Amino acid sequence: MLAFxxxxxxxxxxxxxxxxxxxxxxxxxxxxxxxxxxAPVVFYFLAKDATPFVFNNSVVYPIVVLFTSVYYLYLWxxxxxxxxxxxxDVWIVTNYRIINIEQRGLFSRTVSEQELDRIQDVTSExxxxxxxxxxxxxxxxxxxxxxxxxxxxxxxDPYGVSREITKLAEQRRQAHQETEQKIPTQPxxxx
Amino acid sequence: MVGIPLAxxxxxxxxxxxxxxxxxxxxxxxIIRFGFLTVGSISMIVCxxxxxxxxxxxxxxxxxxxxxxxxxxxxxMGTFPQ
Lengths: 191, 82
Description:
The structure holds 2 protein chains of 2 kinds. Helix content of chain A is about 50%, strand content about 25%. By secondary structure, chain A is an alpha+beta fold. In chain A, strands 1-2-3-4 form a 4-stranded antiparallel sheet. In chain A, strands 5-6-7 form a 3-stranded antiparallel sheet. Chain B is mainly alpha-helical. Chain B has helices at about 5-35, 40-65; strands spanning about 5, 70-75. Chain B starts with a strand and ends in a 9-residue tail after the last strand. The mean pLDDT of chain B is about 85. The interface between A and B is medium-sized, with 30 and 37 residues.
């Protein structure tokens, strides 16, 4: 199970956090699709007395049936795609590295990773009413060099996550230093 | 009678259903290939496929009884109440 979660798992690597956007994000998207689904039903009840010819006409009625069917089929598809898009955006934190997996549409997928000891700065940001009330926000991770910073978008408990990543990065740096100190230095060559 | 065969709309509808099935395949494939097969994701796939079958079945119930051999006359606008 663990190996399945971590792409190209290293020896001794363990999963610390598996993050997705806050459930509020997907609930908002699905609520939108529910409104889009209910709107024609409301329209039907409001307009059925005003436009009886639509449902009595032997030519218009079939077209309305086909259009309604296509409308709901694609609405269902788009709602599911919203879920797929939400589900496949994942940020993984292990004891060695952070992995950013982002699905951009159906045919574009970005996977990037960075070693924890290369992290220089972790910033968390909570912006907006719902973000503040439900405690979700964005965590920016700046790494060494000219690497593009990692962005964990709309994740739950951004302060806690940034604290945890900072702690893990510090532990990793210490472990790295201890390993370097243990390596015996070669004696200078005698002339 | 000169006009547009109603069956054209039926074939257009079938093309839309094929497009729907194609994108359904891609979405489900992505979840299985790149997602994590948990109880939640499997439930979502089953729920989605069940919903899709339900929509297609209900649609078929209405579509099946329609006479697709009809022709839409160019003078159809004259049949609408003014």
